[in-house]
Design a protein that fits this description.
Two copies of one chain form a homodimer. With 302 residues, the first copy, chain A, is α/β, with parallel strands linked by helices. The first copy, chain A, folds into two domains: 254 residues, Metallo-beta-lactamase, Chain A (4-Layer Sandwich), CATH 3.60.15.10; 41 residues, no CATH class. Chain A contains eleven helices and 18 strands. The mean pLDDT of chain A is 96. In chain A, helix 10 packs across helix 11. Chains A and B meet through helix 1, helix 3 and helix 4 of A and helix 1, helix 3 and helix 4 of B.
């Protein structure tokens, strides 16, 4: 699992900082999350293959999270994309994208699908044989969702030595990988735990931007491996965080701690601060494993 | 008069090239023309003061000419802009911008005005005491206008020596600047030409992008000082130019010659060509005074 931060600054694009967008690679799938202005350039700079992106998840319809979407959709079209593209985002996203395509009289030659979100409860919005994506309802100035990406449990690994020892035939291997016990010809029952090893733990990633501090997300992101949580402000600007419905670094760390996540990635920094290092320092006073997101950074989660 | 090319490449933004946008400074006014994705970054890089832009002219609603507009409008808002902003562009531009502002629940605190264009004839769309802006109806795949910017004639310059020689009182000076003859107390009539000099010739600039080769624009841009004309293709791809309703460098030069313009600026290059120098070479075979537009280039027209 790895995460490429294409942009993680709040509000306006600037010469050296980009609005929110990131690419999550999990179980050989590539998911684009949010798409601020300039995302297509950031994808090029970070050498992400455009054709590998088949799903785009948009948290909310503030400009710094989706004004790059129409340009990306159009560029896909100009590059003769063939595979279908599905956009997940708040109600309204379909209307605004379709209106722009209509005005440009430029309809994509590939299939463009929309899954519009309006539920205030967590729901499964994507599922294939390897990965499930659920919404994480957030509390912001407009309807907003975070997204939880979880690998499905993988099959158990065969204990080859034991299988040979019991002379189990290959036709039973899949049953063992599926967790079943095996009855030998002499009637002995060999428990699965003896014939197989635990599979690698499912990877998981939670994206939470933008939101005021809310513990309502904790049951949804509980024990997640990596949590990206917005930290627009430092604790010294807590009043602004509350007013604008954003989070401080301290608050993000409190969420990480209470949800018992393994690692916390910070981002969505207000551009008022000269250095982002203070965010890490503040969060580490509460929570140990803090990673400082920044544009162009790639996190490889081993 | 000077022209800053923020972007002059067709189709998709790329790492080192930008879609169409330019800033014209004429008679102390600053006009933004077209606004592809990333225009706000290009404005920053070229140190154009955001607050100096009060009018934005959008030629047509293809993405490479206007997908940066909503971001710029939002950024103006985040930067606490106060002065009003007027957008000139095809019918539909108001609906799409307002829809995006509504979905973001982010209304600018400044006055945002729209002048929607639909006429197929050239018309005056902006006029103040110094400058007039007219549309130049173009022929493209969607409704498209170029824009002609013309200074109003300035007042004549006083011939100070002559005025003193005839002992003309200062209260008559404005009449002389306005072109009136003067009757002295002894009844002699002094013709204005003897008392004043011609004012500097009005500056003029015509922006024409995107369009198929069309001589219908010649009467409108006749004798203009500077013509920016799109040259998406070279003559070797004339069939593509016709098919996609664009122009070749040769054709742009023919328009410049037939319209008797002083200087031709080229732009809107297809990204298929390795170097843009070939555009200049091809145009110069037809027309002498060719300038090669490129991102970040500033032309000072003395």
């Amino acid at each position: 699992m790895n995460l490429t931060i294409l942009g993680c600054y709040a509000a306006t694009p600037r010469t050296f900082t980009n609005p929110t967008s990131q690419v999550l690679e999990i179980s050989d799938r590539l998911f684009l999350i949010d798409c601020g202005e300039g995302t297509q350039l950031q994808l090029r700079k970070n050498r992400i293959r455009f054709t590998a992106i088949n799903q785009i998840f948009i948290s909310h319809l503030h400009g710094d999270h989706f004004y790059g979407l129409i340009g990306l959709i159009s560029t896909f079209s100009l590059l003769n994309r063939h595979n279908s593209l599905t956009i997940y985002g708040p109600v309204g996203i379909k209307e605004v994208i379709k209106l722009q395509l209509k005005l440009a009289n430029s309809w994509p030659q590939y299939e463009l699908k929309f899954v519009e979100l309006k539920s205030k409860k967590s729901e499964v919005i994507f599922e294939d044989k390897r990965v499930i994506v659920k919404t994480i309802p957030l509390k912001h100035r407009v309807y907003t969702n975070g997204f939880l990406f979880v690998e499905k449990p993988k099959e158990r690994k065969l204990n080859v030595d034991k299988v040979q020892e019991y002379e189990i035939e290959t036709c039973y291997f899949q049953n063992i990988k599926n967790g079943r016990d095996i009855t030998l010809e002499d009637g002995r029952v060999i428990p699965n735990a003896e014939l197989s090893f635990d599979p690698p733990a499912p990877r998981s990633y939670a994206f939470c931007s933008d939101t005021v501090y809310t513990e309502s997300i904790i049951p949804i992101i509980k024990d997640v491996e990596v949590l990206y949580h917005e930290t627009t402000f430092l604790n010294s600007e807590e009043h602004l965080a509350e007013k604008t419905m954003h989070t401080t670094a301290k608050q993000a760390a409190m969420i990480a701690k209470k949800a018992n996540v393994k690692q916390l990635v910070l981002g969505h920094y207000s551009t008022r601060y000269e250095s982002i290092k203070a965010f890490k320092k503040e969060a580490e006073e509460i929570f140990d494993n803090v990673l400082l997101g920044d544009d162009g950074v790639v996190f490889n989660f081993k």
